[in-house]
Specification:
With 611 residues, the chain is of the alpha+beta class. Helices cover 24% and strands 41% of the residues.
Length: 611
């Protein structure tokens, strides 16, 4: 890296004094040693913790960049000290200049390069791809275009370390979305709050004896299994119905006709009986919607083919497959009686909510908790044999189940209960980290907070409008369209195991009105519009193939290639100079050669004879 052939008389003295230490062999060796030690540590760390953590801890860390900068600086100082350049040191200069050039190209790619991914199904056209940059994405009411807010690593680290600080704000029409908190690894914790705008009673029960007791929430028109007994909760708003309920014994022979479906649209609740809409469509009030129960499943489970089926005829997990149709489209979903807040997919009808109240079957619940029109609580025992008993119940009073050793008591009663999933920190060392952020939704005088776990979208209504929120990868426009015409999977002969897969795509540029068809496979990427598309993976979903393409743009690649070519050319020039120097005789060899003297002339000979 260094030698003693400096030319200080050709370099300004001040500059020479400044760069001479940097260009010395000692500094160069120190920088090279620091870089080699860092690379060795990074390699060992990557084998134990994975590439993602190694990138964060080493390759993308600021201290690692400072080592590279120091190494480049010493190399450049060595080159400057050889000024002015001659043909003899051209290889040396070219080799040393190429090293910082390679690092500069890598830095250009890091700062301005693009890496992302496209997921596109057959026949679908996309014009955006998602990058690895974190972002908050919000889609407003109707079919408005989603807007995004980039969340830098430094910003997320600040929100993670300083609780109470506020982050950037994303305006979405009349809504302001402000980032409040970030968790590196998170999990959801279920709780029940009493702020539901709709009437939705629920009871908090303490189940078990003494210090071994635990809490459970029981919502109206649902059942809870305590030991071998079932406990149900029912509210009665009409006084006449309440008197009738007290006067009559519990019906132990009720059937599936007792099931009820509550359909909420724009805050208005409409009730439809299960027996009325099973196998046929019925009108839902004056909403213009129709509801039809396609299947009633008393024991809903996921079958071997990943379809929901009934595992038995016992009411273990009652559910219905419901189809609601109207001018906005058709919404098909599963509604589970025991899991009212479970949403299998995004609703095709805006503002639609479905609550399924399962029918009472068999012997009915062993214990019923009843709320009269004034809100007072009662408990009714329904033994299989003998008279039923109904008595008033106070909060905290112990209820002993017949023939069971697990008593319970009612701790609280909520009239507007809602299940809230709060996000709490999880184990940061888990291999499946799930980052999350908390955002504040502000619309006029209305304000609420919302937790978002990465890649898990949530729909929330505020100020009469519905929004979709997601914490994920930042969407970026391509500037042109990509359509997947066909996706083909090649298999090994005689087996169904995939051997290869390829995407037949069409690139369409609206600005120029042209299009190009390409085939992208594992080892054959395609280039278009300044991007390179690679076949990454695929997924089969509902009979359709979804192809995932990696998208990359590397502006530093020409600089890196130029550095590689310069490095190779410089090394060849150095080797050529060394070979020529080896062939050229040395000064010692020239000194040892015999001197050939010319014979004296004839006149000189005569002169010598005379003497």
């Amino acid at each position: 890296m260094n030698d003693s052939n400096h030319h200080p008389h050709r370099i300004p003295r001040g500059l020479f004094i400044l760069i001479k230490p940097l260009g010395s062999l000692w500094f160069g060796g120190l920088a090279l040693m620091a870089w080699l030690v860092a690379m060795a540590c990074a390699t060992i760390y990557e084998t134990r913790h994975g590439t993602a953590e190694a990138l964060e801890a080493f390759y993308l860390a600021n201290w690692f960049r400072w080592i590279l900068a120091f190494l480049c600086l010493t190399v450049l100082a060595t080159v400057v000290l050889r000024f002015p350049f001659t043909r003899k040191n051209l290889g040396f200069v070219l080799t040393h200049v190429s090293v910082p050039l390679i690092f500069a190209g890598a830095m250009i790619t890091h700062l301005w390069g693009v890496n992302g991914q496209i997921g596109v199904s057959e026949g679908q056209t996309v014009s955006q791809f998602s990058t690895d940059q974190d972002a908050l994405i919000v889609k407003g009411p109707s079919d408005s275009t989603p807007v995004s807010l980039e969340l830098s690593d430094d910003e997320l680290a600040r929100l993670d370390a300083h609780a109470g600080d506020t982050g950037p704000t994303l305006p979405v029409g009349a809504l302001q979305v402000q980032v409040l908190q970030h968790l590196v690894s998170s999990r959801f914790e279920r709780s029940v709050v009493n702020d539901n705008p709709l009437l939705h009673p629920a009871l908090e029960l303490s189940v078990g004896p003494g210090s071994a007791a635990h809490t459970e929430w029981l919502f109206a028109d649902q059942e809870l299994e305590i030991g071998e007994s079932r406990v149900a909760f029912r509210t009665v708003a009409d006084a006449a119905e309440w008197e009738k309920l007290l006067a009559q014994p519990a019906d132990n022979k009720s059937s599936a006709t007792d099931g009820l479906i509550k359909i909420t649209l724009a805050g208005v609740v409409h009730e439809v009986r299960l027996a009325d809409c099973t196998g046929k469509a019925v009108a839902v009030g004056n909403t213009g919607l129709t509801a039809q129960v396609l299947r009633y499943l008393p024991h809903a489970v996921v079958g071997p083919d990943k379809k929901v089926v009934s595992g038995s005829d016992q009411p273990v997990n009652p559910a219905i497959e419901l189809e609601v149709a109207g001018p906005q489209g058709t919404d098909r979903r599963f509604a589970f009686a025991k899991f009212p807040d479970f949403q299998h997919a995004k609703s095709a009808i805006e503002g639609l909510e479905v609550l399924f109240i399962a029918p009472q079957t068999g012997d009915g619940a062993a214990v019923q908790l009843l709320a009269d029109p004034s809100g007072e609580l009662y408990v009714r025992f329904n033994p299989k044999s003998g008279p039923q008993v109904t008595k008033k119940l106070t909060l905290g009073e112990l209820v002993v189940l017949p023939g069971a050793a697990r008593p319970f008591s009612v701790l609280r009663k909520y009239d507007h209960a809602r299940i809230d999933w709060a996000m709490v920190p999880a184990d940061p060392d888990s291999k499946q980290q799930k980052p999350g952020i908390q955002v504040a939704l502000i619309a006029g005088s209305e304000r609420r907070s919302l937790w978002l776990q990465k890649y898990s979208p949530r729909t929330e209504s505020i100020a009469g409008a519905s929004y979709e929120f997601m914490y994920g990868d930042k969407p970026t426009s391509l500037g042109f369209d990509v359509r997947l015409e066909k996706f083909r999977i090649g298999t090994y002969p005689g087996t169904g195991r995939p051997r290869s897969f390829e995407s037949h795509v069409t690139f369409m540029d609206p600005a120029f009105g042209g299009q190009q068809s390409r085939v992208i496979s594992m080892n054959h990427p395609a280039k278009f519009g300044g991007y390179t598309f690679y076949q990454s993976s695929y997924r089969q979903e509902e009979g359709k193939s979804i192809s995932f393409l990696s998208v990359a743009r590397d502006p530093g690649q020409p600089v890196v290639f130029a550095g590689y070519i310069g490095l190779l050319a410089g090394m060849l020039l150095v080797m050529r100079a060394r070979i020529l120097d080896h062939r050229r005789p040395s000064a010692f060899q020239v000194a040892r050669r015999p001197v050939k003297r010319d014979a004296p002339s004839h006149a000189r000979q005569e002169e010598l004879v005379a003497v």
